[in-house]
Amino acid sequence: GENVEQHPSTLSVQEGDSAVIKCTYSDSASNYFPWYKQELGKRPQLIIDIRSNVGEKKDQRIAVTLNKTAKHFSLHITETQPEDSAVYFCAATGGSYIPTFGRGTSLIVHP
Amino acid sequence: GAGVSQSPRYKVAKRGQDVALRCDPISGHVSLFWYQQALGQGPEFLTYFQNEAQLDKSGLPSDRFFAERPEGSVSTLKIQRTQQEDSAVYLCASSLVASGGKDTQYFGPGTRLTVL
Predict the structure, then answer these.
(1) Which of A24, A52, B81, B108 has minimal CB crowding within 10 Å?
(2) Cβ-nearest to B104 among A46, A97, A104
(3) A24 three-class SS
(4) With an 8 Å Cβ cutoff, is B42 touching chain A?
(5) Which of B112, B86, B7, B101 is nearest to A99 (CA)?
(6) E strands present in chain B
(7) Does A97 lie at the interface with B, CB-CB under 8 angstroms?
């Protein structure tokens, strides 16, 4: 089955800095890669996703890049703000239609 | 519109009790997933429905776990003879299309189950 590794587990940045979270996956058949943001005690919410027919996708301060050859994808947040503080999860979905999630990255943005 | 809702939000059970967790997906959503989320971990897949059909239950930890979606909308996750290791947040998610995990999933707020 699919295996997703996510790093780092904790990321602390100053407001205004950029943050990068990386995930690797094992199943070469995976072709859908969403990122979810989960604030403390709240439900996960999709913030951006990418499919394997593109290499990069941007939405304002958030971008995701995908390297299919290396089987890794990354979340980039620019000009971080305190409200970006949350746990971020990556996921990969392959032929089974079942998403496999990473273990999460706790992002702390210091004002 | 209304999002995914789950009830109860919190459940405390004594070891050995049976519990039932309810999920109301977004109206018209074909796919429904149940996940288990332990503290500090990502969601772990339990089971997947496409309408009323349970297409995958490979993530259910034991035969004490049972899920149903009889009319293709509301789903119930039942845990029999609860054990302490069942303590976790149980998340439900729905998506519009039949391809399940390859489309945007909308999560419910979760049910936090504590087994004493």
Answers:
(1) B81
(2) A46
(3) strand
(4) yes
(5) B101
(6) 5-7, 10-13, 19-24, 31-37, 44-50, 53-56, 65-68, 75-79, 88-95, 106-107, 111-115
(7) yes
Pairing of strands B75-79, B65-68: antiparallel
- Which one-letter amino acid corresponds to residue B110? G
Tell me the average pLDDT across B20-39.
96
Tokens of B18: 């049976």
CA of B48, closest CA in chain A: separation in Å?
Answer: 8
DSSP β-ladder status, A10-14 and A105-110: parallel
Q: Distance from B21 to chain A by nearest Cα, in Å? A: 16
CA distance B73 to B63: 23
CA distances from A19 to A7, A14, A50, B68 (A): 12, 10, 18, 41
Instruction: Decide if pLDDT at A95 tops 80.
Output: no
Q: Which residues of B25-34 are buried (b: 16+ CB within 10 A; e: fewer)?
A: bbeebbbbbb
Give the number of other Cβ atoms within 10 Å of residue B113's Cβ.
Answer: 21
Q: How confident is the model at residue B38 (pLDDT cuts 50, 70, 90)?
A: very high
Rounded Cα distance between B73 and A65, Å, is: 35
- In this prediction, residue B79 has a pLDDT band, given cuts at 50, 70 and 90, of very high
